[in-house]
Design goal:
It contains two helices and nine strands, in the order E-E-E-E-E-H-E-E-E-E-H. It is an alpha+beta fold and about 160 residues long.
Amino acid sequence: MNERDASDDAEYLPPPPPAEDTEEIGATAGDWRIESDWTNAANDLGSRDAAAAVFASDAGRATVTVLQFPTDDAAAQAALDIRARIGDPTYTEQVFDDGSGTRYDFDGATVSRVVWHLDAQSRPHSPGRLYIVEAPTNAADSFAGQAAYQLYLALPL
């Protein structure tokens, strides 16, 4: 328990409030464990809220970011905005076997990313969410071996 009194130090700033709506992901994903609490994240895509956490496993370290938009369409547009910034994805797939949701995999030279959003047909479904997993690119033979993709597969979504 932190018993530090804010009056001890004029420059003391309390920690940010816990990021909302991250319970669906939690603190573990298969062999992956969260390194520190969820925090408010940079929000340069126009979302209402953004939260991020770093996860680690034997496969490496990866950052999960959850952005909350007012609608599924706004989340889908933000995914397209990411594509416009970093280029065409290596792969584009559906999230669920029923064909719902859209996932973009980016196998970059230095960073690998998995970006996905769900749609009204997706179950489970949290409207307006955009998810991003980013990790340094490793020497894997294919995207399937990249830490970003490995964490995506382990997430309980």
